[in-house]
Amino acid sequence: MIDALIIGGGAAGLSCALVLGSAQNKAFAKDKSIAIITHQKTSHLQTALFNNVLGLAPGTTGESILDNGIAQLTALYPHVEQIDHEKVSDISKSENGFTVTTNKSTYTAKIVVVAVGYTNLININGLEPFIEPHPRAAAEKDRIWLKNTDHLIETNLYVAGTLAGWRSQFAIASGSGAHVATDILTLWNNGKHAKVHDKVL
Ligand SMILES: Cc1cc2nc3c(=O)[nH]c(=O)nc-3n(C[C@H](O)[C@H](O)[C@H](O)COP(=O)(O)OP(=O)(O)OC[C@H]3O[C@@H](n4cnc5c(N)ncnc54)[C@H](O)[C@@H]3O)c2cc1C
After folding, report:
1. pLDDT, tens digit, 9 for 90 and up, residues 78-135
2. Where does ligand 1 bind, in terms of residues with CB under 6 Å?
3. CA-based Rg of the chain, rounded to a whole angstrom?
4. Residue 150 dihedral angles phi and psi, to the nearest 5°
5. Atom 53, ligand 1: which residue's CA is nearest?
């Protein structure tokens, strides 16, 4: 049983994984198992070029962010399990959480974060009841969101990034993933607000 399973290795998913991973020394998080399904083939980052993101050198490619994000997670937070080359096809409720089925395997998780982007080509069984037209995208683009309140779809099921209803900007999607991570950390900390800051000594 995984404690928190993130689905999607794009802006929101990787940001969520990095913040969750960075809590490794907090007493309330250190025994938690965290995993991310790092599918990146359909990320909007694949073709993006960034000149307008604070902290990113102008000309940074989305492709490099995808590669460097995985490398950063591997180097700094190796306890976050990375599940590569798998695509989720089904999410269903199980006794103590959720069963997540991919093209290769099945996982059980107490908390699931769906961060697969806002395309209407989403084909994950089990999410149909939550799919609605995206509230902050041009209607002719047929984008979708998963109806949620502050990223929470239902107990222990979160959505992050553009699929959460945010406009498509890198900083917003990343911030959404980070936000969900701190909500999960807060949950693990028995409701006491949690965040993770490193400091120059
Ligand atoms: C051409 C282009 C240029 C852009 N330029 C800018 C810019 O200049 N400035 C800016 O701020 N923003 C820009 N953006 C927007 C930015 O890239 C997006 O806002 C951001 O990538 C959205 O993040 P996300 O995590 O919601 O989705 P994504 O980054 O698309 O990530 C979704 C992830 O889910 C994975 N996934 C999908 N289905 C499944 C499944 N069934 N199972 C498992 N994983 C799955 C995908 O492979 C992907 O990795 C641009 C986008 C594009 C397309």
Report:
1. 999 999 999 999 999 998 899 999 999 999 999 999 999 999 878 899 999 999 999 9
2. 7-13, 37, 39-45, 47-48, 50, 52-53, 62, 87-88, 115-117, 124, 161-163, 168-171, 173
3. 16
4. 50, 45
5. 44
Kind of pairing between the strands at 2-7 and 106-114: parallel
Q: Where are the domains of the chain?
A: 2-188
CATH of domain 2-188: 3.50.50.60
| Torsions phi, psi for 41 (to 5 deg) | -55, -40
What atom of ligand 1 comes closest to residue 15's alpha carbon? 25
Separation between Cα atoms, residue 184 and residue 159, nearest integer Å = 12
pTM here is: 0.98
Nearest residue CA, atom 29 of ligand 1?
10
The Cα-based distances of 77 to 81, 82, 89, 198 in angstroms read 9, 10, 27, 14
State which ligand 1 atom lies nearest to the alpha carbon of 177.
25
Between CA 12 and CA 74 the distance in angstroms is 17
SS3 166: coil
CA 33 – CA 36 distance, rounded (Å): 10
